[in-house]
Amino acid sequence: MSDEYLYAYGIIENEEIDASIEGVEGATRAYTIDHRTLSAVVSDIETMDPEQTDENVRAHDDVLQTIMFWEGGRTVVPMQFGMTFKSARPLKSILRGGRRAFVRALQDMDGMIELGVKLLIDEDATVDRDAVREFTVEQLAAASEQEAKNDLFSDRLIINRSYLVDREEQAAFETAVDAITEEYGDTVTVQYTGPWAPYNFIDIEISSQ
């Protein structure tokens, strides 16, 4: 019989969840392990070192996204990819040691989701980058709580940012994205992604055991 380890996706306020969800390394179930007022969302996997493939990363995000909206929804503090534990004991130790930080993050992120926006100049198009950037930032700032700048990894990228948005305001944010597309869609491609757990707005250092 193969050894089983616990792969952790994120932290929620104490709640029992046991759901059939496709997870990392082919897991078919996500459930919770509790410590006081916190619960960790986990799956059973057969390795301590899951490979960071596109499929696994997508599964990690998909589980978090599903839990965020499961049966009415809840706030999730996401863990980075690869957080694997030998048993429930070291995981509960993490919940105990980081309890204050987790509780604060859950309070700060209450009801929030992360949305991503990229703007890429179409090939052979000529645009006023500053004008596009200014218009975009103004539109999206009005519909979000915070923003985080990501790498401009291509010369064609004008904007690559993550936005913290109240889930009740997602429709307003999407209206702002539509306004950008309407204004510059002839020369710029707008890529809108999410909703995600708020990765870019939580700074908690965790190490697996």
Automatic annotation (TrEMBL):
PANTHER family, per database record: PROTEIN GVPL 2
Alphabetic keyword roster: Gas vesicle
Domain of life: Archaea
Cellular compartments annotated: Gas vesicle
Provenance organism: Halocatena marina
InterPro entries in the record: GvpL/GvpF
Principal subcellular localization: other
A Pfam short name: GvpL_GvpF
Entry's Gene Ontology cellular component terms: gas vesicle
Recorded family membership: Belongs to the gas vesicle GvpF/GvpL family.
Protein name: GvpL/GvpF family gas vesicle protein
